[in-house]
Write a structure and sequence with these properties.
The complex is a heterodimer of chains A (714) and B (270). Chain A has 714 residues and is an alpha/beta fold. Chain A has 25 helices and 21 strands. In chain A, the strands form 4 sheets. Chain A has an 8-stranded mixed barrel, surrounded by 5 helices. A 5-stranded antiparallel sheet of chain A has the order 2-1-5-4-3, sandwiched between helices. The longest helix of chain A is centred in the first third of the chain and has 62 residues. Chain A is rod-shaped, with a radius of gyration of 61 Å. With 270 residues, chain B is α/β, with parallel strands linked by helices. Chain B has one domain: Rossmann fold, CATH 3.40.50.150. Chain B contains 10 helices and 7 strands. In chain B, β1, α4 and β2 form a beta-alpha-beta unit. In chain B, α1 packs across α2 and α3 packs parallel to α4. The radius of gyration of chain B is 17 Å and the shape is globular. Chain B starts with 17 loop residues before the first helix and ends with a strand. Classes of the chains: A alpha/beta (714), B alpha/beta (270). At the A-B interface, α2 and α5 of A face α3 and α5 of B.
């Protein structure tokens, strides 16, 4: 509609323009001013129409006032500007030609109605918006509350359903809430837990730092800690837990609660204790075993100043016999009984008894005064064994040998102490048993050296640590060298040259004597061959002969004859160049089986000499039965002839023996000849050959060669 | 029900909310006394605050219409606040019937009220999320339903970025949104600044302090700093300018001096 210039429509629009210009700055609308004017135009028209209507309706004013609010003119200023504008321009632009007074009255009434309508609409709108925002706030809270509720329900389910115990307490330690798992661990009801305080839960096994950590946590100096902790249950039993306590802070970071998570480790702990017990105790006797004993011993030996230890190492005498004759079950019952008795001997603090295995037991005492205590302890043990043990209606007498080691802590290690005790116990045993002996460092050292040599023997043979020295055998009639005795030596890497007395018994004991003896025989025979080749034989005296010692062990070895034959053949030495020396004691009581190999050797031409003759109480009547061709008189007989004049009794004895030997067609060799007078005396007495320092000490094979040459030229 | 990351542990309406303060500036009654108290305090320093807000609304209206004229039918309005009048969906759906409008706000009360206002509107929705977590916005079921990121989107960040502190990396958030939206998308942005305020900065600082006190600090940025939000965008004419100067419908000289506070601009991705 195109407004006719200054026609009613044009005037109405001009009014709307003025109105919009007046009000626009007071509105919050996002419309532009022209757009806003378009919004006001219909309102202006309604006012204009109402102004000039046949019947005046103030209601129109109310609706226009309300419409202003709807157009976001909610600022009171917008109303006052509107009313000012209407008051000044409505009649002027829209009044037409009616009565000015009537128009003014109507305009005033329209303004009143607009104010009322604006106020009412603004009130409605304000209330509605307030309502809307409150609803929105409630709804939002509802969403959050619902979410929180769901979260809380979920956490509650976790809390209640958790297998680990969970508890909350305030910083004073008052328990606020615990879950079912925790109640079950403690075996109590929720009611009894209420009102309890964390600090009541002390236990004697609490680690020293347990409550320090707690104090740090509740003071806010520590966020959490983890300990192993025991609790008393109401029934007095103990609950062991892995306990983690955390500090909970509020939104501002201030400490607020403590949260405890605990895992019941009681059974695991019991199992561990049980496993530990089983690992450290002997199943048969229930005594502590070697493992536990070593732990204790180590502790005792590591104790501080002025602390000492005493150790009794007990081995039953003849237990093997009981086991063999009565069976293992009986043996076991005996061990159990002995264990019980030993246990009752060591009841004081610092004392313990353990079974090391078999019939070996140890008793340990510790403290400052073990020098006295260990003797008493050994005495109590010996006493405890006096009463016979009744097994299957038999009274078995139990005896034991005890090795005692006593000393200050901090000097020796457990292995050394136990070895000393073991050595000492063997000393008690070899002294006849049923006694106790005190450890002696020298005896220990000897035993240790012996032990060392024994274990080093096999390797020594492999490493060629043995060598042989030869001591000449001289014919007393013409002083010529007829042969030599092979004497084995050990060039030990640490101990130097060792004589046969140091290691032959050990080799006998371990059986190494057989290979060692074979080696000596082989070496000696080869040496004899060399002598024969270089020196040739003396037609009068035959070839140089070699004497080799045979140990009892070799004597009973089944390979003796064959080995000897092989060695001789390999070397190309005839049997009559070899003399095997056997000690008289080895042949005492020898039966035919034992003599058979000697006989075979003798039949081949090997000479057999009876060594150390005169020391073994030999049955002289037996001499004729033995395949022996030479008697070697023990040096004890010749010792009496070193002085001058010679002991007449010795002279008579030697004369008798020589006479007896010759009558049995046996030659006689004497050992230990050290002086010319001795040699002369023995020659007069009719001895055939001699050896000793008077002629030569044992030495390398070349020496014998030289002697023989001297002899030949002399 | 999983508590969304945005959801506060509780809603405390005794704490002023920037969206309800905004509503008060605009003459609305969607607010509580705490909000009005804060608003009145800020207005003691900057009496023209309502005019600034009005200029924001007017710019937004022009920009949405511009976007609709450019053929854009999807609008993502982050920091939408309390819907009062002349909202994006009204403007957009008037200019482009059936346009999809997605409102995002992290104020649960504003979200609840928006839900009430949008009840029955199939093509407009609201989701509670935070501009500082753009991936959560993009991944939300509501955004997935209404916004197809493979077609151009008008992203509205009107009067919100000045509430995001640098520590929360507003530039990163804006860049992530830019990268997520199809080429041809628009960024419609306004931002508070000391530049353009017809008062000495000391006075304006008083208003800034009010926001600091209600734990919603107002970050005043310089024009250059604001321009950096448009990295990766080509500025639409006339560029980053005071709000009344952006494609005005009427002569800007008629506008209230306060409405020239801060900057507005629209950018388009290639």
């Amino acid at each position: 509609m195109i407004a006719e210039p200054d026609g009613p429509e044009d005037r109405l629009r001009r009014f709307a323009t003025i109105w919009s210009r007046a009000v626009f700055p007071a509105t919050s609308t996002s419309l532009t001013r022209p757009e806003f004017e378009e919004l006001l135009l219909p309102l202006a028209r309604r006012l204009s129409d109402a102004l000039r209507a046949r019947t005046f309706e103030a209601e129109e004013g109310k609706q226009v006032g309300a419409a202003l609010v709807a157009a976001h003119c909610t600022d009171p200023d917008a109303l006052s500007r509107t009313l000012e504008c209407v008051d000044a321009y409505l009649v002027l632009y829209c009044g037409g030609d009616g009565s000015q007074e009537d128009l003014r009255i109507r305009s005033a009434r329209l303004q009143h109605a607009m104010a009322a309508g604006f106020a009412q609409e603004l009130r409605e709108r304000t209330l509605a918006e307030q309502e809307a925002i409150s609803v929105a706030a409630l709804q939002a809270q509802g969403v959050v509350a619902q979410a929180l509720h769901a979260t809380e329900a979920r956490f509650r389910a976790v809390f209640e359903g958790a297998a680990i115990g969970i508890g909350m307490a305030d910083l004073e330690g008052n328990i606020l809430q615990v879950n079912g798992a925790l109640l079950r661990m403690f075996g109590i009801s929720d009611q009894t837990m209420g009102g309890r305080n964390v600090r009541e839960w002390t236990h004697p096994d609490d680690a020293p730092q347990t409550w320090t950590l707690y104090d740090e946590l509740v003071r806010g100096e520590r966020e959490h800690y983890h300990v192993e902790k025991a609790f008393y249950r109401p029934d007095g039993t103990v609950l062991w837990t892995n306990l983690t306590v955390s500090l909970l802070r509020d939104a501002d970071g201030n400490p607020q609660y403590q949260l405890a998570l605990m895992e019941d480790t009681t059974e695991r702990r019991l199992l561990n204790l049980r496993l530990r017990y089983e690992a450290t105790h002997d199943a048969l006797t229930g005594l502590p075993n070697r493992t536990l004993f070593f732990e204790r011993l180590e502790k005792a030996l590591g104790a501080g100043e002025n602390q000492r230890f005493g150790l009794c190492y007990l081995d039953l005498d003849g237990f093997k016999t009981i086991n063999d004759s009565l069976g293992h079950a009986a043996g076991d019952r005996l061990l159990v009984e002995v264990a019980d008795r030993l246990q009752s001997c060591a009841t004081a603090p610092g004392e313990m008894v353990a079974r090391l295995g078999g019939d070996e037991f140890v008793a340990l005492t510790t403290g400052p005064d073990t020098e006295r205590e260990v003797d008493e302890l050994a005495g109590r043990i010996m006493n405890a064994l006096i009463t016979p043990v009744s097994i299957d209606g038999r009274d078995l007498t139990v005896r034991g040998s005890i090795g005692i080691v006593e000393g200050p802590a901090g000097e020796r290690g457990p292995a050394e102490v136990l070895r000393s005790a073991d050595i000492t116990m063997y000393r008690a045993k070899s002294a006849g048993g049923n006694r106790f002996e005190l450890a002696d460092p020298e005896a220990d050292a000897r035993a240790i050296t012996r032990h060392g040599l024994t274990t080093a023997l096999p390797a020594a043979l492999d490493r060629n640590e043995f060598f042989i020295e030869y001591q000449p055998l001289v014919h007393l009639g013409d002083g010529s060298v007829r042969g030599a005795e092979a004497l084995v030596r050990w060039l030990h890497p640490q101990h130097g040259v060792l004589g046969p007395d140091r290691f032959i018994p050990l080799a006998e004991h371990t059986g190494l004597i057989v290979p060692l003896g074979r080696w000596v025989l082989d070496q000696s025979v080869r040496q004899a061959k060399q002598w024969q080749e270089r020196h040739g034989g003396n037609d009068a005296t035959g070839p140089l002969r070699i004497n080799v010692n045979l140990s009892p062990c070799q004597l009973s070895h089944p390979g003796l004859v064959q080995d000897t034959v092989d060695i001789l053949e390999r070397a190309g030495v005839s049997p009559d160049a070899l003399c095997l020396e056997v000690t008289e004691s080895a042949l005492i009581g020898a039966d035919d089986d034992l003599l058979k190999p000697l006989r075979q050797l003798a039949e081949m031409g090997v000479d057999i000499a009876l060594d150390d003759f005169g020391t073994g109480y030999s049955n002289l009547a037996n001499l004729r039965r033995l395949p022996v061709s030479i008697l070697k008189l023990d040096r004890s007989f010749t010792q009496g002839m070193q002085q001058f004049p010679a002991d007449p009794v010795d002279l008579k004895i030697v004369e008798g023996i020589v006479s007896l030997a010759h009558s049995l067609n046996l030659a006689v060799t004497v050992e230990g000849v050290e002086t010319g007078a001795q040699a002369e005396q023995l020659r007069i007495l009719g001895c055939d050959t001699a050896q000793g320092w008077y002629y030569a000490r044992p030495g390398p094979p070349e020496r014998l060669h030289e002697l023989a040459l001297v002899d030949a030229t002399g | 029900m999983e508590r969304p990351a945005w959801a506060p542990r509780s809603i405390d309406i005794s704490v002023p909310s920037v969206s309800r303060i905004y509503d008060y500036y605009l003459g609305g009654s969607h607010n509580f006394e705490v909000d009005r108290e804060a608003a009145r305090k800020a207005m003691e320093f900057l009496p023209g605050l309502p005019k600034i807000m009005q200029a924001n609304r007017a710019f937004m209206r022009r920009a949405v219409r511009f976007a609709a004229a450019e053929g854009i039918t999807q609008f993502l309005d982050i920091g939408s606040g309390i819907p009062t009048f002349g909202n994006v969906h009204e403007v957009a759906q008037e200019a482009s019937p059936g346009a999809h409008v997605m409102y995002v706000d992290h104020d649960p009360v504003a979200v609840a009220h928006s839900q009430a206002v949008l009840a029955g509107n199939e093509t407009a929705d609201v989701v509670a999320a935070d501009l500082r977590k753009p991936q959560e916005i993009l991944a939300s079921a509501e955004v997935q339903r209404l916004i197809d990121v493979n077609r151009p989107v008008a992203l509205l960040l009107v009067a919100i970025l000045h509430f995001v502190e640098d520590v929360d990396d507003p530039y990163g958030a804006v860049a992530q949104l830019r990268d997520a939206l199809a080429p041809g998308s628009l960024l419609i942005l306004t931002h508070a600044s000391y530049e353009g305020i017809p008062l000495p900065p000391e006075r304006a600082e008083g208003a800034v302090d009010v926001y600091k006190d209600i734990r919603n600090p107002l970050i005043m940025r310089s024009r250059d700093e604001i321009a950096r939000f448009f990295e990766g965008y080509d500025m639409v004419e006339p560029g980053l300018v005071p709000m009344p100067d952006w494609r005005p419908d009427t002569a800007p000289e008629d506008e209230d001096p306060y409405s020239f506070s801060g900057f507005a601009g629209v950018g388009r991705t290639a």
